Q: What sequence folds into this?
């Protein structure tokens, strides 16, 4: 079975082969409990992703961007970070958010149309607001990393983005600044092959990881569906950053199994064959196979997680549906720290106070 | 009593802010080693070091975006956009994030960013060096926008802007950078959201801001010769507008003329006229008049004088308004 | 158990409908949460909609191929739990109101008002509809003095007279006093100061009755047509007194006294002189009906007439001595047509007859002028030939 087209060119680093056999040294410094935690999160995340799509079809969520197929990239990266590290996500990082400690119900307020940005506390969770304008969050990560550098902390900042974002000016401006200033930053690109309907080959003619050389720092290409390989790549990049050696660009090759969002019909621009082919590289199947071969999980464990995932999805559903619209004053209450008088008059007018 | 240029007064405001709060950072293009193309940041890097005052790559979006991230890390960035038209690459960051991030984080992350922009025309500049971008910023909820018209007030407004917990765009009129004013610099006095009356009068109020304030004062002197008593208002703060002052002037003089360099359509004159109508319609003895730049791109240096509101145009509009 | 209706969700962003491709369940089926219900095609994609409830399907709304609007019922389920009943707030009731002002100088519908905001505000504070004031400033602009003029007239008219403003009236939902009654009372009190005299004539209505029967309906349109013809020769019937001149009017507008539940209302029949009998009849019916059901427009009430007609015969009176309404110089009252003993060619015969009374402003004309005009009107009404020549 061939890998997705955008995986061509330079071979990505791997710990596990797509069939779950070891590609190299699987001693990545993690204990069996860590492996189990990773796999459990991957199972829970995928189940929740499916529930969110159902909730959108039932009118309970606004447009929802699924992440099926990208669980290894997100969860592997999340496991590689220290508690103090800070992630600036895109709008497709629910799996990473959960592992970083963001309450999924709070996160999904965003897609329920309850609140913009980060309904959760970005400072407390070390997870930035959901960012819709492509690549803009990379510049925020640069600023945050600069702030850490100025303060002399050991905090590593991670900027998440996709293949499409590398075409934006903000990616270039941010990466360039990060290189010039040698910032403690990990530029983490999940290349899932598609930017809505445009394939990576129409997005950029080169390999994304190679851009790093032009900015004066290292780039790596990793199999993004290999949770252990992603873990290693991010761990190493974070270590470089923490040691004051500057930024790293990671291109994690993965695949967007679902449509861009529930408002998108992927059959308009790609074949079902392509998707089926990509499923052969499924990150959960791969990791589960290795875990079983190593004796870290068995049928009973997998069944238990599957049942836990159903209960988890149901609990998120119930908590979300119970969430009515927020009070009308929320539309005004946080716009300014020091709200001007004319603004307060409008607020009063709107609220009928 | 010391004499200050606006460039010098703004520089002093940055100096005092850097000295007074160690979380204040000053960065942008050419603000460090060279001290800024209009000399506003001259001497700051020498005094406060490369950590607090530094040059960036030519990356307006990156500068604004980095300022957002710095706020997450508890810093208080003062960024410079070297020229009005060069601020446009940063508009996505400013509109999508600088202005909205506090709301997007439900008040958990303030954005105390000061965006200094060398703005407006009147210096016989190259193209893209004479634009009036205020409407873009004023129209963006979450931002505050101020425009100083004199050195002492420039100092005060910039100090207030840096101290403000919300993002403030400071549009510095290039044509007034070298204008002088004598007095002691002080942050005390009217802050953001308050305009000021620079000349009292009863027959008509002429409202303006930035470099046009000087011309309005000249026009008021001419009109005084006709026996027309002109009140001159310097708005200072475009967002928020000083509604109380506008209302009071409309009620007391019944006639309002607005003067600005920006094109007429959706310029501040439109907003001033609308507010005055909403707040004091029944006091208006004449339609609100607008003396503005034209709805055409800012022209080359040799045509600049025909574009900017002249003393003659201001005087004519005021006469017509009074005679209505 | 309770019924729950699942509405077509917006499956994209701002979509308006979805087309049912295929139902995956049937009425009566028991379904699990998230079990596929139906395949729906939208402008963006074909999607499978999972069930939002666990329960029994009661009704599928719409067959395959049907377009179901977003928000419309798609499936009704029977599920555990209660149903919220949404209360529909009642529409606010509209109460018709009836503007009346003795001081209207101008029709508010005559075009936009030119004035400045302070003058508008002054009028508003005085309770005067700015649209009813005639402006004397530059370009017809209403100036402060114009508002003062109306205010002075109101003050002179005394307590209780309100120049009811159009805008306020149309919005009002309650009237503390009956403005028509009040307006009538105050106006009549003011009008009593005008020197007014009434003269009477009896008319042989034989020819009139013949024509009336031929045309059907009330004799009033015929009387009005005859009056207009008479005014051509006796213009002082259609005139008004001003301080310096007696002004004969170029247009014959006739006030019609209409008895309503709320009292006497005098709508104006515009340009009666140019209308035929049928047209007059239609207009009289319209004005009377709208006066009685309270749907009269302000245009019908603007006092542009100097002559008014009261059909006192319609309620059985033989003759009346009406008081002139404000601005009116002549009011004719037609008594009831009854068989009377008349002397015709020396013999007493029974003929249909009526009494016409003419009340007039003595400043405009004296008794002889009025008498001659009334005689001319009577002669016309008694002539079958001349009645037949009136425009139909």
A:
């Amino acid at each position: 079975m061939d890998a997705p087209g955008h995986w061509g060119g330079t071979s990505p680093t791997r710990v596990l082969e797509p069939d779950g056999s070891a590609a190299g040294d699987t001693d990545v410094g993690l204990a069996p409990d860590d492996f189990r935690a990773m796999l459990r999160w991957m199972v829970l995340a995928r189940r929740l992703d499916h529930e969110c799509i159902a909730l959108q079809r039932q009118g309970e969520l606004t447009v929802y961007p699924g992440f099926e197929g990208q669980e290894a990239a997100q969860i592997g990266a999340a496991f590689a970070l220290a508690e103090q590290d800070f992630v600036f996500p895109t709008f497709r990082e629910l799996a990473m958010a959960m592992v970083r400690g963001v309450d999924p119900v709070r996160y999904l307020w965003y897609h329920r149309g309850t609140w913009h940005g980060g309904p959760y506390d970005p400072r407390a969770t070390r997870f930035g607001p959901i960012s819709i304008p492509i690549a803009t969050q990379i510049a925020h990560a640069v600023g945050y990393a600069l702030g850490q550098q100025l303060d002399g902390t050991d905090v590593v900042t991670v900027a998440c983005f996709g293949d499409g974002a590398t075409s934006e000016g903000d990616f270039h401006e941010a990466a360039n600044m990060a290189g010039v200033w040698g910032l403690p930053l990990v530029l983490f690109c999940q290349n899932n092959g598609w930017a809505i309907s445009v394939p990576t080959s129409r997005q950029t003619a080169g390999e994304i990881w190679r851009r790093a050389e032009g900015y004066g720092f290292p780039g790596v290409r990793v199999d993004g569906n290999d949770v252990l390989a992603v873990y290693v790549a991010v761990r190493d990049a974070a270590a470089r950053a923490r040691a004051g050696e500057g930024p790293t660009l990671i291109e994690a090759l993965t695949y967007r199994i679902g449509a861009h969002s529930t408002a998108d019909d992927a059959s308009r621009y790609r074949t079902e064959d392509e998707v089926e082919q990509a499923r052969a590289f499924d990150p959960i199947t791969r990791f589960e196979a290795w875990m079983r071969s190593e004796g870290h999980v068995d049928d009973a464990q997998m069944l238990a997680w599957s049942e836990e995932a159903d209960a988890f999805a149901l609990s998120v559903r119930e908590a979300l549906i119970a969430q009515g619209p927020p009070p009308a004053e929320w539309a005004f209450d946080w716009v300014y720290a020091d709200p001007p008088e004319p603004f307060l008059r409008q607020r009063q007018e709107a609220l009928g106070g | 009593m010391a004499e200050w240029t606006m460039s010098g007064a703004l520089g002093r405001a940055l100096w005092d802010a850097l000295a007074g709060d160690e979380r204040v950072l000053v960065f942008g293009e050419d603000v460090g080693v060279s001290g800024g193309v209009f000399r506003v940041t001259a001497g700051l890097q020498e005094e406060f070091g490369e950590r607090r005052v530094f040059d960036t790559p030519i990356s307006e979006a990156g500068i604004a975006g980095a300022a957002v991230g710095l706020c997450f890390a508890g810093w208080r960035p003062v960024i410079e956009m070297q020229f009005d038209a060069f601020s446009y690459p940063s508009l996505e960051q400013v509109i999508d994030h600088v202005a909205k991030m506090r709301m997007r984080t439900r008040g958990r992350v303030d954005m105390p960013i000061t965006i200094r922009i060398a703005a407006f025309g009147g210096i016989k500049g190259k193209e893209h060096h004479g634009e009036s971008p205020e409407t873009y910023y004023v129209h963006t909820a979450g931002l505050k926008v101020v425009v100083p018209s004199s050195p002492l007030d420039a100092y005060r407004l910039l100090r207030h802007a840096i101290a403000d917990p919300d993002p403030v765009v400071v549009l510095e009129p290039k044509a007034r950078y070298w204008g002088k004013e004598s007095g002691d610099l002080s942050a005390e006095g009217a802050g953001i959201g308050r305009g000021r009356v620079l000349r009292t009068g009863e027959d008509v109020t002429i409202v303006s801001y930035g470099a046009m304030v000087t011309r309005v004062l000249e026009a008021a002197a001419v009109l005084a010769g006709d026996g027309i008593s002109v009140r001159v208002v310097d708005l200072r703060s475009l967002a928020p507008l000083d509604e109380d002052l506008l209302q009071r002037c409309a009620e007391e003089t019944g006639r309002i003329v607005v003067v600005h360099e920006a094109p007429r359509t959706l310029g501040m004159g439109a907003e001033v006229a609308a507010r005055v109508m909403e707040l004091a319609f029944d006091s208006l003895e004449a339609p609100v008049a607008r003396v503005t730049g034209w709805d055409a791109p800012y022209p080359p240096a040799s045509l600049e004088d025909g574009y900017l509101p002249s003393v003659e145009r201001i005087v004519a509009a005021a006469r017509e308004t009074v005679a209505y | 158990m309770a019924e729950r209706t699942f509405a077509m969700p917006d499956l994209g962003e701002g979509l308006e409908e979805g087309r049912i491709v295929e139902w995956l369940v049937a009425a009566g089926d028991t379904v699990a949460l998230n079990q596929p219900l139906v395949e729906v095609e939208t402008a963006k994609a074909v999607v499978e909609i999972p069930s939002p409830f666990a329960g029994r399907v009661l009704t599928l709304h719409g067959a395959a191929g049907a377009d179901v609007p977003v928000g419309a019922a798609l499936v009704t389920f029977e599920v555990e739990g209660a149903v919220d009943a949404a209360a529909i707030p009642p529409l606010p009731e509209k109460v018709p109101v009836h503007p009346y002002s003795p001081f209207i100088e101008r029709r508010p519908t005559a075009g936009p008002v030119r004035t400045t905001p302070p003058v508008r505000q002054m009028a508003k504070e005085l309770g005067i509809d700015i649209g009813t004031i005639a402006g004397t400033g530059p370009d017809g602009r209403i100036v402060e003095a114009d508002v003062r003029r109306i205010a002075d007239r109101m003050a002179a008219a005394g307590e209780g007279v309100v120049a009811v403003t159009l805008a306020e009236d149309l919005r009002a939902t309650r009237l503390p006093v009956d403005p028509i009654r009040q307006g009538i009372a105050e106006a009549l009190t003011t009008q009593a100061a005008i020197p007014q005299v009434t003269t009477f004539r009896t008319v042989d209505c034989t020819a009139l009755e013949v024509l009336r029967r031929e045309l059907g309906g009330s004799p009033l349109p015929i009387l009005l047509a005859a009056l207009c013809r008479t005014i051509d020769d006796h213009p002082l019937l259609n005139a008004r007194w001003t301080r310096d001149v007696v002004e004969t009017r170029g247009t014959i507008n006739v006030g019609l006294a209409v008895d309503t539940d709320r009292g006497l209302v005098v709508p104006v029949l515009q340009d009666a002189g140019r209308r035929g009998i049928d047209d007059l009849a239609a207009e009289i019916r319209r004005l009377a009906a709208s006066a009685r059901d309270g749907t009269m427009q302000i245009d019908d009430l603007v006092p542009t007439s100097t002559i008014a007609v009261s059909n006192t015969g319609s309620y059985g009176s033989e003759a009346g001595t009406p008081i002139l309404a404000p601005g009116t110089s002549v009011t004719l009252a037609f008594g009831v047509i009854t068989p009377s003993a008349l002397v015709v060619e020396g013999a007493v015969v029974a003929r249909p007859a009526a009494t016409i009374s003419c009340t007039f402003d003595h400043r405009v004309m004296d008794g002889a002028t009025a008498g001659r005009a009334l005689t001319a009107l009577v002669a016309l009404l008694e002539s079958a030939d001349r009645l037949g020549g009136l425009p139909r």
